[in-house]
Write a structure and sequence with these properties.
heterodimer, A: about 550 residues, alpha/beta, Chitobiase, domain 2, 8-stranded parallel sheet, B: about 525 residues, TIM Barrel, 17 strands, elongated, Beta-hexosaminidase (chain A), Beta_hexosaminidase_sua/sub (chain A), disulfide bond (chain A)
């Protein structure tokens, strides 16, 4: 997925005699801030009616409670934690106001937000899935606001929306306008990919990012956990993989407890954790802790000492994969595993005489794509046996591997992604789009607009085909990204993707988006998130975490 | 462009062997190779001495009477002790018999002053027989030496601290090594500025060019003209720099041997000034009537110069540096042209239709004001381009053949600061520290005397898309690439491939010191950045 990035560094070293390009930074038409009638709502809900009637909230009397009829009561820890979180977002957790409920309340108009789970099974203790109901209805009126949702997942989104409706009037009083909202996502799969192999991301950085994802109604954390440079996943079955393949066997690994913590933290925010274990390419780090897994490359008639992709001709490879993916399927509760399958280089396979012999035996001729398919085919069977679904990068589909009908194809190659979407959906596969959302590429200026203007269904195909697009992902590959710059590089640029995937197709007014996104960014900053600025501007409460 | 490329950075292997007179012994990356920016002369041996926090001390050479101990150095000792031994607390400090002392001696005892353009930063560091001595002409040189010393100390796998026997003689290639921060397009909290000053000292930068005000906001709180920030700042209370904020920045910088160069850019880039100072800006006209918008400073009114004299007098007293940056860039003439009073003035002065003459007229008056205040003026190259006569220092910022411009300026006998190749606010599609490293400020045809007029360079981080949320990772470690270009010997540092592992190592050191420096490429540091 990141072939282009590999050589940028070298290009730079050579190209340095050239001066900088034109210095003019203000090429885009100027977006002028004009308050939106939707305030700071982001992503914009499907149906919103905001009235002029404003209600005051006081931190001492306002509370978030379970509705009497609710299908989830005080025993639903997920909701109770969310109530506390959103209470703190609304009233500023840092201020440490003493909350004294018995004290006489000041003038206030809104006393309560009642959360009402309308279905008997709230899914409070379950995990979110691609088919989870995320819809909710919010009515803000005096003296009680009601948030109705069939499942807890919708309630979580509704709480975020509620918190976005609250603003500070000029006297600093928390205020909310009387509002009616009914909302649901346009796409079911709204993801962020983080790459923890090229640089290790401390667990805290991952958790912070999950927190921000929830503020943007993202619901999938695609964890590209291992790759060529390092193997930070600590496997209980094969501890040598991280012992030898991580940057450091203790400080740069994710222990089972870490992984558990990430999954639970995500679940509490309605976010799925989809793990990716990319093979047969992108596996250099696997070879350090698992001998005979990778293909030995030859130069001439002798092994060169270097290794290529996973060796697809040994039975031991498949024994290993069977055990390994058994563990993965138990550790990660999500119904899907991402199996990668991208960018396999055939050179090493071509150099190896044993592989050549095998090709001959199988009648593959010189077509190494057939060998790749042979491997993937076996791998898919292994994973299917664990009762998991799988997601694969588009090359696997392009190379004609026979796929189970419920396979999800992940489209990432930038050029020709529209025709790829046509092809994949014409073949009847569900698909996820990432091609236009490689956020690790940076440029000066308001590039969020480019991400915002993407229309995922803008390809040739029938209505049936378009229904197969279940969503998209913003990718933050790790060549140049670690905990020092992850958050400002990702936010608020990824927020543009968030609205595209959540809001109605017709929501395309960039002027209105600019003003809401500016406020949304300031809200992130106020919540302690270093989200970078869009233009010369200021926030009432600037980032203090320097 | 041709001039620029006359030094080919690709031929590094050759250069490496030509300069054998400078003996740099490759031990491993834990030692002197990892000092960034590379010192001028390093002689290194494999003999090493252990350092223990409980038996390490800084000392003054005896003739420095302890009663007159140097406040700048005392503060530096405190800083560098925690940098040398992270996490170690003084409580456990017990004198052991064998104390490793770093003894400092200064030729001049000038601890109470401010660094300036002529300050010597030269130092000699000698680590030998379990002791170290640091000699410098000035306290500023000794600060540079302390930084180098701190980078020489390394930890082995068991956590013990070591330093190798080393001899270093060092001085900067250029005396002016600056970083520009823009606090007008986004307000930067004082804490973000102080943190940048810390990181600057680690890369041996010595000028903080404070682009305080500009079109979007006027955060400098003037005691003579409080309305400028009352009305011109983003917020009159939370988004301003009070006098005590400014003093704090100046003193924090001084402690690190860094000058603070204020910029009050005029006559363009002054929209925010107009909000708190009526009649300062030129009213623009549409048809025969004022359009309600304003252009650059109005150069035709005597009141303008009274105001500027008064403001600059305040600035000159608040900022101790003998230089003031007067800006003078990107003046848009369309508003002046539209205004009938300006046109009448042009006519009276015999400027014809050449508005650059009007601009020159204005700048000349402002430069005169600053020279009466005994300050040297720095201006952006635009001023030189239309007005070669004025005595001042020119900062070259435009892209294209910037060395051609440098050459024109030094031929006119003026001193020059180079900024063009170091516009770091432009992240570009790629991540190119090498682009900031492969810069050769003296690669133009000229006499030695002309080349000596190039006093240094400056990294510019303009604020359109930068605030405290992304400042540090955007600036570091890419600015450090420029730092080595400005400090070190060009011929010893011409090879990107050799610099790369050293810069990676240095970046990890920055992380260890709490600077949020972004990665250069795939890899890891022993101590990753934690506070997110």
């Amino acid at each position: 997925m990141n072939s282009l990035l590999g050589f940028t560094f070298i290009l730079l070293a050579l190209g340095s005699c050239r001066g900088l390009q034109d210095n003019d930074v203000d090429k885009e038409p100027d977006l002028v801030f004009q308050p939106s009638k939707y305030g700071s709502l982001w992503p914009l809900p499907q149906n919103v009616q905001i009235s002029d009637v404003s209600l005051k909230l006081s931190s001492s009397s306002f509370s978030i409670t379970d509705a009497k009829e609710s299908g989830a009561g005080a025993s639903c820890g997920l909701l109770q934690l969310a109530y506390r979180r959103y209470y703190e977002y609304i009233f500023g957790g840092a201020k440490k106001q003493k909350v004294n409920r018995s004290a006489r309340a000041g003038p206030t108009d809104l006393l309560e937000l009642q959360v009402w789970i309308t279905s008997p099974d709230s899914e409070c203790d379950g995990y979110p899935s691609v088919s989870s109901d995320e819809s909710y209805e919010l009515t803000v009126d005096q003296p009680i606001a009601v948030l109705k949702a069939p499942k807890v997942w919708g309630a979580l989104h509704g709480l975020e929306t509620f918190s976005q409706l609250v603003f500070e009037d000029e006297y600093g009083t928390k205020t909310i306008n009387s509002t009616v909202i009914s909302d649901f996502p346009r796409f079911a799969h709204r993801g962020i990919l983080l790459d923890t192999s090229r640089h290790f991301l401390p667990v805290k950085a991952i958790l912070t990012n999950l927190e921000i994802m929830a503020m943007n109604k993202f619901n999938v954390f695609h964890w590209h956990i291992v790759d060529d440079p390092s193997f930070p996943y600590l496997s209980r079955t094969f501890p040598n993989l991280s012992q030898k393949g991580a940057y450091h066997p203790y400080t740069h690994v994710y222990t089972p407890a870490d992984v558990k913590m990430v999954i639970e933290f995500a679940r509490l925010r309605g976010i799925r954790v989809v793990s990716e274990f990319d093979t047969p390419g992108h596996t250099q780090s696997w070879g350090k802790g698992q001998t005979d897994l990778l293909t030995p490359c030859y130069s001439g008639s002798k092994p060169s000492g270097t290794f290529g992709p996973v060796n697809p001709i040994l039975n031991s490879t498949y024994d290993f994969m069977t055990q390994f993916f058994k563990e993965i399927s138990e550790v990660f509760p999500d119904a899907y595993i991402h199996l990668g399958g991208d960018e396999v280089s055939f050179e090493c396979w071509q150099s190896n005489p044993d592989i050549q012999k095998f090709m001959e035996q199988q009648g593959f001729g010189k077509d190494y794509r057939k060998l790749e398919s042979f491997y993937i085919q076996k791998l898919l069977d292994i994973v299917a046996a664990t009762n998991k679904g799988y997601i694969i990068w588009q090359e696997v589909f392009d190379n004609g591997v026979k796929l189970k009908p419920d396979t999800v194809v992940h489209v990432w190659i930038g050029s020709g992604s529209n025709s790829e979407m046509s092809k994949v959906t014409a073949a009847g596969f569900t698909t996820i789009l990432s091609a236009p959302w490689y956020l690790d590429y940076i440029s000066i200026g308001q590039d969020w607009l480019n991400y915002y203007k993407v229309e995922p269904l803008n390809f040739n195909g029938t209505e049936e085909q378009k229904k197969l697009v279940i969503g998209g992902e913003a990718c933050m590959w790790g060549e140049y990204v670690d905990a020092t710059n992850l958050i400002p590089r990702l936010w608020p640029r990824a927020s543009a993707v968030a609205e595209r995937l959540w809001s109605a197709k017709e929501v395309t007014d960039t002027g209105d988006a600019f003003s809401r996104l500016s406020l949304h960014r300031c809200r992130l900053v106020e919540r302690g998130i270093p989200a970078e600025p869009l233009t010369p501007s200021f926030c009432l409460h600037e980032y203090k975490g320097v | 462009m041709k001039v620029m490329c006359s030094v080919n950075p690709g031929h590094c292997t050759l250069i490496k062997y030509i300069f054998l007179l400078l003996i740099i012994i490759h031990l491993d990356l834990n030692t002197a190779e990892s000092v960034w920016p590379l010192p001028q002369i390093v002689i290194l041996s494999s003999e090493r001495y252990q350092l223990k926090p409980q038996s390490f001390s800084f000392g003054y050479r005896r003739y420095l009477d302890t009663k007159h101990s140097c406040s700048v150095l005392d503060a530096a000792f405190k800083r560098y002790f925690s940098i040398l031994f992270p996490g170690y607390t003084y409580d456990e400090w017990v004198f052991e018999n064998e104390v490793f002392t770093l003894t400092i001696s200064l030729d001049r005892h000038d601890c109470e002053g401010y660094p300036n353009q002529d300050s010597s930063e030269r130092y000699k560091l000698n680590v030998f027989a379990g002791q170290a001595s640091l000699n410098a002409e000035t306290v500023w040189g000794s600060l540079r030496g302390l930084e180098t010393f701190s980078q020489l100390v390394y930890q082995d796998d068991f956590g013990s601290y070591y330093i190798n026997k080393t001899e270093i003689e060092d001085y900067p290639q250029f005396n002016y090594r600056g970083i520009l921060l823009d606090t007008s397009r986004h307000y930067l909290p004082v804490q973000a500025i102080l943190k940048t000053l810390d990181a600057m000292a680690y890369s041996k930068f010595n000028v903080f060019h404070w682009h305080l005000v500009d079109d979007p906001s006027f955060p400098y709180q003037s005691h003579k003209f409080p309305d400028l920030s009352n009305k011109g700042a983003f917020h009159p209370v939370t988004h301003i720099y009070t006098q005590s904020d400014v003093r704090r920045v100046i003193s924090y910088a001084r402690m690190r041997g860094i000058r603070v160069l204020p910029e009050f850019d005029s006559p363009g880039h002054t929209k925010s000034w107009g909000k708190g100072q009526s009649e300062l800006l030129t009213p623009c006209y549409r048809g025969g009537t004022p359009s309600g918008t304003f252009g650059p400073v109005n150069p035709t009114l005597p009141s303008t110069y009274q105001f500027m004299a008064s403001l600059l007098k305040e600035v000159a007293s608040v900022f101790p540096d003998p230089y003031i940056h007067l800006g003078g860039d990107e003046v848009d003439f369309s508003c002046w042209r539209s205004n009938p009073y300006i046109r009448a003035f042009m006519h009276k002065m015999g400027f014809g239709l050449d508005f650059s003459k009007l601009e020159a007229f204005y700048i000349e008056k402002i430069v005169n004001i600053t020279s009466v205040l005994r300050k040297t003026s720095i201006v952006w190259q635009d001023v030189f381009d239309y007005h070669e006569r004025v005595r001042m220092l020119v900062e070259v910022w435009k892209q294209g053949c910037y060395l051609c411009e440098v050459r024109r300026v030094v031929k006119a006998g003026l001193r020059v600061i180079l900024a063009s190749p170091w516009y770091l606010d432009q992240p570009g599609p790629t991540h190119n520290w090498a682009r900031y490293y492969n810069v050769w400020p003296l690669a133009f045809k000229g006499t030695e005397k002309q080349k000596s007029l190039v006093i240094g360079g400056e990294v510019c981080l303009w604020g359109e898309y930068i605030d405290a949320t992304n400042l540090s990772p955007r600036l570091w470690p890419r600015a450090s690439a420029a730092a080595e270009r400005l400090w070190s010997n060009e011929r010893q540092t011409s090879c990107v491939e050799r610099a790369f592992p050293r810069l990676q190592e240095f970046r990890c050191k920055l992380l260890r010191r709490g600077i949020q420096a972004e990665p250069l490429y795939v890899g890891h540091c022993k101590h990753e950045y934690q506070s997110v």
